[in-house]
Specification:
mainly alpha; 7 helices; elongated
């Protein structure tokens, strides 16, 4: 019985960090929708756009990877929250850099359901998320 109690002794911390992570995912969705000139939800839900689903899905995965790095390395909830915001900013910047340098027509291409553009956006987003998570190991 002691082993079981010891195993679940951190359940309250898990619940708080997990709940805050879900809140961060929701905030990320809002921020990302604000940063991108195309409406991902409309494209995915109404037009069934594979390009938008791939791009937005990759952005969510990239952000979740970075956020997991923040959880694993934070010293407190405040520390986690600060690095969660950093992760949001990094993902938003990744889209902006891709849009304004390497693929200036990415939003138009995603609107046109060009899957290759969505896949590239997903790849960049996941790569940035991985780098972001690695850089949080201070």
């Amino acid at each position: 019985m002691d082993a079981l109690l010891t195993s679940i002794s951190g359940l309250d911390n898990f619940a708080v960090y997990f709940a805050l992570s879900i809140v961060f995912l929701f905030v990320f969705k809002i921020v990302y929708a604000f940063v991108t000139p195309h409406d991902e939800w409309k494209l995915v839900k109404e037009q069934k756009s594979v390009a938008a689903a791939a791009g937005f899905g990759g952005a969510m995965v990239g952000f979740a990877i970075a956020l997991s790095g923040a959880v694993a390395n934070s010293q407190s909830l405040i520390d986690f929250a600060v690095w969660g915001v950093v992760a949001i900013v990094a993902q938003a910047l990744a889209f902006a850099i891709l849009r304004f340098t390497f693929m200036p027509k990415i939003a138009e291409r995603i609107n046109n359901n060009e899957v290759s553009a969505g896949v590239m956006l997903a790849a960049v987003s996941i790569a940035v998320g991985l780098l972001n998570a690695a850089c949080m190991t201070y």
